[in-house]
Amino acid sequence: MSAHIDDMLNDKNKLVIPGLTIEEAFGDIKGVNVRVIVKAIFSREPTGLVHIFVDNSNIEIEGKKLISALESVYENQLNIDYGRLLKTLLNGRQIGDDPVIVGSRPPPNDSIWRKIEDFGYRVSVFDKNYAFQEKKVDNELGLSISDAIQEYKRPGIIVLVAGDGDYRPALTRALLRDWIVEIWFWDHGKRQTP
Questions:
Q1: Nearest to 79 by CA among 94, 62, 60
Q2: Which CATH number do you get for residue 71?
Q3: Which of 109, 148, 164, 182 has its CB surrounded by the most CB atoms within 10 Å?
Q4: Does residue 31 register a pLDDT over 70?
Q5: Where is the NYN domain (predicted)?
Q6: Are residues 91 and 28 in the same domain?
Q7: Non-local CB neighbours of 12 within 8 Å, separated by 6+ positions
Q8: Would you say the pTM of this structure is higher than 0.70?
């Protein structure tokens, strides 16, 4: 070791480099490869916990459209059982956090969102834009997925109920962090996003 490195050792031969970057500390030493090992302060072991995210428009529009055609009933005759949906998605597994459901604002006299909250869902509603599109819904759901990835350092399982590709960036981040991703959708309702 050079005298320069010896000056950076404390009395217990531990490297002490206050306020210096690795480059500042070792940049002038020729022919030395420096490998920095940082111990993780948390485990990366998967939790197996399920985090559920639902694009309600996918269920309300595409789901009712498909089921009404299959069962020869009118769409307005169908009601979604959100408790059963939750049970189906969990399939006996442990939930990691309150499920998140995002959708468009219903008429003022509609009580559906209050009923959904009773099942333990975190509900976010948004107005449709001038073209009756729901980009705020997609953005909110994508951000909720990203929040879960950041908040829960150990990977779990993300279950997404949606019908388009707007969530690809958030799901890609989840996969890169060793999360398992399940996507539930109505086959006829899937749309590719450019």
A1: 60
A2: 3.40.50.1010
A3: 148
A4: no
A5: 50-182
A6: no
A7: none
A8: no
8 Å CB contact between 163 and 53: no
Report the residue count for the chain.
194
DSSP-derived 3-state class of residue 143: helix
Number of compact structural domains in the chain: 2
For residues 138-146, give the mean pLDDT: 91
- Asked whether residue 111 falls in the same domain as residue 17, the answer is no
Do both 24 and 66 map to the same domain? Answer: no
For tokens 């690809």, what's the residue? 168
For residue 57, what are its two tokens?
């428009």
Give Cβ neighbours of residue 147 (< 8 Å, ≥ 6 apart): none
Q: Is 24 helix (H, G, I), strand (E, B) or coil?
A: helix
CA angle in degrees (0–180, nearest 5) for 47-52-57:
165
pLDDT of residue 10: 60
The answer to whether 158 touches 53, Cβ cutoff 8 Å, is yes
Q: What distance in Å separates the CA atoms of residue 142 and residue 6, rounded to the nearest whole number?
A: 50
Cα(28)–Cα(5) distance, integer angstroms: 11
Which H or E run contains 138?
Answer: helix 135-151
Tracing tokens 């490869």 back to the chain, one arrives at 33
Query: The tokens 């999360």 sit on which residue?
Result: 179
- Is 45 inside a domain boundary? no
